[in-house]
Design a protein that fits this description.
By secondary structure, the protein is an all-alpha fold. The protein is built from 15 helices and no strands.
Length: 295
């Protein structure tokens, strides 16, 4: 079936992964709001920056995995536009550069508003988008992708969003960020579990390749369990009991966890991936709403 350019680029953006960028920003906004620190411009800038960086990372992953041979005809995951011949490599390189350049004015605004710490956050985020699968020693190829995803889609994202509004970094938003960070790590672990054979052929040494399927399945279960526990701990500490709504959303992924523990592979893990993506969005919005209306 012929695909329009719009559809091709929609595939390249990978909309189902964008929840990992949206959820921690929503949580950071909610924590700032309840503390009387909400700032609309900073909140919008944080969301736009997070989405653009996620899109840039997806473009870079599409390009660099094609270049390194990690995506081939045997792939069982969603289509990758460069390896499928839908986007020329040179065109994807241009798309990566343009997307990252679009982050620059947002970063300048955040530095102006919240201070020079955002120079480091912005630079580190751009490097993460590129070095996740690019460069001489890509993070994903040496088993550090999970840790980086946890940090940038978890504590850094929530605490950074809060700081963009309040102009100060606090421990509470960083601790709250452990939840979405663990779910981002879950998303990556499911992806790596599904792709471990192709990754091994391309010498992409993810944790699933290094330590095997059993380790990846345990990582998935443990990450979800920690994410579920974080709102309970925070509620007991701060009395924002509405945040426990985020814990309740984790029930929705139990059927997918069952499939993982039963040894699901291939297209079954694609469904688990979709369930995890939905959970991240539900988790972030439930936490945010609960945090703001009940304390």
């Amino acid at each position: 079936m012929a695909r329009t350019p719009l559809h091709v680029w929609w595939l390249a953006i990978r909309p189902k992964t964008l929840g990992a960028a949206i959820a921690p920003v929503i949580m950071g906004v909610a924590i700032a709001y309840s503390a009387g620190q909400f700032h609309g411009g900073a909140a919008i800038a944080a969301m736009a920056g997070a989405l653009l960086l996620q899109i840039a990372a997806n473009f870079a992953n599409d390009y660099f995995d094609w270049r390194k041979g990690a995506d081939d005809a045997r792939r069982v995951g969603p289509i990758r536009v460069v390896s499928a011949g839908l986007v020329a490599p040179a065109t994807m390189r241009i798309a990566i550069v343009l997307t990252l350049l679009s982050v620059v004015p947002i970063a300048v605004y955040l530095v102006w508003r919240a201070g020079p710490a955002f120079i480091g956050i912005g630079a580190a985020s751009i490097l993460f988008a590129l070095l996740y699968t690019g460069g001489p020693r890509p993070l994903a190829y040496i088993g550090l992708g999970d840790v980086a995803a946890f940090a940038f889609f978890g504590p850094i994202a929530v605490a950074g969003t809060y700081a963009a509004q309040s102009r100060s970094f606090e421990w509470l938003p960083a601790i709250a960020g452990i939840g979405p960070g663990c779910l981002a790590m879950t998303l990556l672990a499911v992806n790596n579990l599904r792709d471990r054979e192709g990754d091994a052929r391309a010498n992409k040494r993810t944790l699933a390749v290094r330590f095997g399927a059993g380790f990846a399945r345990a990582e998935i279960v443990l990450s979800v369990a920690i994410a579920a526990a974080v709102p309970v701990v925070l509620a007991a500490w701060t009395h924002h009991w509405g945040a426990v709504a985020a814990t309740a959303t984790c029930i929705t992924i139990l059927p997918a966890i069952r499939d993982v523990l039963r040894g699901g592979e291939g297209h079954t893990l694609n469904r688990v991936l979709a369930s995890t993506g939905r959970l991240i969005i539900l988790y972030g919005f439930s936490f945010a709403i609960g945090w703001m209306i009940w304390w």
